[in-house]
Design brief:
mainly alpha, MetI-like fold, globular
């Protein structure tokens, strides 16, 4: 096997570095402008701050009642992730292990649901949610996330479960284990790579989602971080200094979360390619 460092490898590394720097440009603008005054941002958004204003973070923390918004976002994200993992993993397992016309039809319906734009069902969804008393309710919002997230999550579990050997499940069944026990004791522990992948994808989606919480949560005490931050960007008054400071605080937990699970992402990709 030839491991020589060639000019082609060097060129690819240069291209990768350039692309990485381009992706870092938005972070640069957010970070440097989060510690500027609004006037300095409008004057020159690309320059380094002459006077660092750390007070922006303190002001936005109090103005948006950030701890409350953070707990709302955390509660919605955790509950939605747990429900989606439980529902979708069991559904994917049943559809993968019970081949037949009914399973194929159900699988196609799940996949077809992924291509329905949210905007086309937005108004009927709000009306139906209001009639079911799901509006202005954290559990109601989590329940709606179940409906929107189960298709993609089930699809991912279904593909991964097909790579799990049936012999493992059959051996547990011969030993007297119930189907429920087979799944939770034998199958589910083997799904750790795809569970981590699903958690990351759904967390990024739910944590950063604005439109659905905006429609479902009218009470200010229930606002998530993206909805709470929208108050800083009114039609005639945009507080860029506070908005960018709030953006830094709001994205920090999700960045830390992604970094902590980075090694599990790599393991999941390696496990999937090996299978």
């Amino acid at each position: 096997m030839d491991n020589k460092y060639t000019s082609r490898t060097f060129a690819l590394e240069i291209v990768a570095v350039v692309i990485a720097l381009l992706f870092m440009v938005p972070f640069y603008f957010v970070l440097i402008n989060a510690v500027k005054s609004n006037a300095n941002i409008l004057l020159d958004a690309a320059s380094f701050p002459k006077d660092v204003i750390w007070d922006n973070f303190q002001r936005v923390w109090k103005l948006l009642h950030f701890p409350r918004a953070f707990m709302n976002s955390l509660l919605v994200t955790v509950l939605a992730n747990v429900g989606l993992i439980v529902i979708s993993s069991m559904a994917g397992w049943m559809l993968a292990r019970t081949p037949g016309k009914v399973s194929r039809v159900l699988f196609v319906l799940f996949v077809a649901a992924m291509v329905i734009p949210f905007q086309t069902i937005m108004i009927p969804l709000v009306k139906l949610s209001a009639s079911l008393n799901l509006v202005n309710s954290i559990p109601g919002l989590v329940f709606i996330y179940f409906g929107f997230g189960v298709s993609m999550t089930m699809f991912l579990f279904h593909g991964f479960i097909k790579s799990v050997p049936r012999e493992v499940e059959e051996s547990a069944g011969v030993d007297g284990c119930s189907p429920f026990g087979v799944f939770w004791r034998i199958v589910f522990p083997l799904l750790k790579p795809i569970v981590v992948t699903v958690v990351i994808l759904n967390t990024l989606w739910i944590w950063n989602d604005y439109l659905l919480p905006r429609l479902m949560l009218q009470d200010a005490d229930l606002h998530t971080i993206p909805v709470a931050m929208s108050a800083l960007f009114a039609q005639y008054n945009k507080q860029w200094d506070l908005g960018l400071a709030g953006l830094v605080i709001g994205t920090l937990p999700i960045v830390v979360f992604s970094l902590l699970l980075q090694k599990h992402i790599v393991k999941g990709i390696a496990a999937g390619s090996g299978k």
